[in-house]
Amino acid sequence: MLSLTIDIMSLFPDTVSAVLRDSIIGKGQENGIIRVNCHQIRDYTTNRQMQVDDYLYGGGQGMVMQAQPLHDCWKAICEEAGERLHTIYMSPQGKVFTQADAKRLKNDYDRFILVCGHYEGVDERFIEACVDEEISIGDFVLTGGEIPAMAVADAVCRLVPGVLSEEDCFEDESHWNGLLEYPQYSRPFEWNGRKVPEVLTSGHHANIARWRRKEAIRRTLIKRPDMLEKAELDKKDQLLLEEIRKEMEL
Ligand SMILES: C[S@@+](CC[C@H](N)C(=O)[O-])C[C@H]1O[C@@H](n2cnc3c(N)ncnc32)[C@H](O)[C@@H]1O
After folding, report:
1. What is the mean pLDDT of residues 220-233?
2. In angstroms, what is the span from residue 139 Cα to ligand 1's centroid?
3. What is the pLDDT of residue 171?
4. Distance between CA atoms of 188 and 209, rounded to whole angstroms?
5. Which of 137, 142, 170, 233 could form a disulfide with 148 if both were Cys (CB 3.0 to 4.6 A apart)?
6. Per-residue DSSP letter, 219
């Protein structure tokens, strides 16, 4: 059953579509659980040159995407959907995207639009008229919104039940519960003189779970102490943290 549809408005819909047709997200689409529709903004121009951008009022370098083709593309998607869809403009000025946003988008919407800007960005009046939120993928500037839109689509789609082979796959992953994930190993047991921690081959599930939780806390402490400060640690976790601090002589 179709659980989520994402409409991506772009000047490079074929590139975006090709990437999201591959791998796990592609399988999810093949299985009919998710759908990603990529729309060519240029198809909605009203000039013969199919130009989507123009000079900035007030002068300055570069071009800005005009409101009209963006609006008409957006309107056509909403009309086809039969409702005004939640609309997100990918922008370096937006709120920086987190796993919590991926969860929120997956829980709150069964269809939404991602708008990819280009050049110097898009005419402000399109944002005022049609955009509900702006999302950034980090404090840096890319040439276009396609990579950010693909990142958001991927992060949200993989949370839809049935997209990943095992539903609980993502629940131990980094950022799900405010911690980073524990270290992971595969065969062989020994590689270039480095062995897999013994506990992982013990078959003792409780000990393995304890070790993984402790290592998740340790990594978060080492790599992202800012996250650990905000993480919800229960009494057992606090004890593990004390052990770690002693081991690390902190
Ligand atoms: C060169 S950027 C425009 C930047 C704009 N002039 C500014 O300073 O805010 C062109 C497009 O790339 C996308 N983009 C660039 N960096 C991004 C980021 N960090 N997150 C999300 N989208 C981004 C946006 O869609 C934007 O319209």
Report:
1. 97
2. 10
3. 85
4. 21
5. 137
6. H
169 pLDDT above the threshold of 80: no
The first and second tokens of residue 43, run together, are 């198809």
Is the minimum distance from the CB of 91 to ligand 1 under 6 angstroms?
A: yes
Domains and CATH numbers, the chain: 4-165 (3.40.1280.10), 173-247 (1.10.1270.20)
pLDDT number for residue 167: 58
Q: From the CA of 90, how far away is ligand 1's center (Å)?
A: 7
Please report the atom of ligand 1 found closest to the CA of residue 65: 27
CA of 242 to the centre of ligand 1 (A): 43
Q: What is the pLDDT of residues 206-218, one digit of tens each?
A: 999 999 999 999 9
Sign for the CA dihedral angle at 138, 87, 128, 64 comes to: positive
Q: Does 236 score more than 90 pLDDT?
A: yes
Q: What would the mean pLDDT of 227-243 be, rounded to a whole number?
A: 97
Q: What are the angstrom distances between the C-alpha of 118 and each of 15, 57, 64? A: 15, 17, 8
Cβ neighbours for 176, distance < 8 A, ≥ 6 positions apart: 99, 170
